[in-house]
Design a protein that fits this description.
It is a single chain. The longest helix is centred in the C-terminal third of the chain and has 31 residues. The chain has nine helices and no strands. It is flat. It is mainly alpha-helical.
């Protein structure tokens, strides 16, 4: 079972100038880095973008252990590419190298920029960038209630094990897993209806005010973010 109970609405944000910088600038920079990582084919530029992402990770002060754990989840996929592409593709080594650099650059950049931003700040930044309101509200409630669905799944799974269920790949076990998913869908639908009715009684009109904690951005922090944008453009112009 996937444990998402550690997700909280206001995460512990490491103290750095990145955490004090405007969320809008960080969201825009994360999107720009991801687009360039995906579209630029030059290997030297990809290396510069990877170095840029490493610098972002260092100055954001994200805990190194948490960062390495998240990278380890992706490195299994990357290792599979290195074990297959060099043998089945004409330019497999270069392709695997580019994919490795792209994946690590994108993940490091996103973690560095968004791990230093609370979820309400991200949602408010998306609203300021005129993202569709329905999409923002959907993202908000998905993030807000995912631990509730995880708790329901854990309770159902524990009740199954108490009744003698043993995980396997047999047809009976797969059918039991299907029943688990079905029950979870039913419970999730019923709970969402109760939450929606409660929200209507409190005046919900399809939008949600995101109460992000207001912080005063100093001129030096904004200047540092402008410097990061300049360094990003420099990586593309190499």
């Amino acid at each position: 079972m996937i444990d998402v109970r550690g997700i909280s609405y206001y995460d512990d944000i490491p103290d750095s100038f990145m955490s004090r910088s405007p969320a809008v600038l960080k969201v825009i920079l994360a999107v720009l880095v991801s687009i360039c990582v995906a579209l630029v084919n030059s290997f030297p530029i990809q290396l510069f973008l990877l170095a840029y992402a490493i610098v972002l990770a260092l100055i954001s002060r994200v805990p190194m252990i948490a960062l390495l754990k998240r990278l380890a989840l992706i490195d299994g996929f990357v290792l599979t590419l290195w074990l297959t592409l060099p043998f089945f593709c004409e330019d497999g080594v270069r392709t695997a190298a580019i994919i490795t650099v792209r994946v690590h650059a994108a993940i490091l950049a996103f973690i560095s920029l968004l791990q230093t931003t609370s979820m309400p700040e991200i949602l408010e930044a998306l609203d300021q960038l005129h993202f569709p309101r329905k999409l923002i509200v959907l993202l908000h409630f998905t993030y807000r209630y995912i631990h509730v669905l995880a708790d329901e799944a854990i309770k159902i799974y524990q009740s199954m094990t108490l009744r003698g269920f043993e995980p396997s790949i047999k047809f009976s076990a797969l059918r039991t897993y299907g029943n688990l998913v079905g029950i979870l869908v039913v419970k999730g639908t019923m709970r969402s209806q109760r939450v929606y009715n409660a929200m209507l009684l409190r005046g919900f009109n399809g939008s949600y005010p995101f109460f992000a904690p207001r912080c005063r951005h100093s001129f030096s922090d904004i200047l540092k973010m402008v410097t990061l944008y300049a360094l990003f453009l420099g990586c593309l112009m190499v």
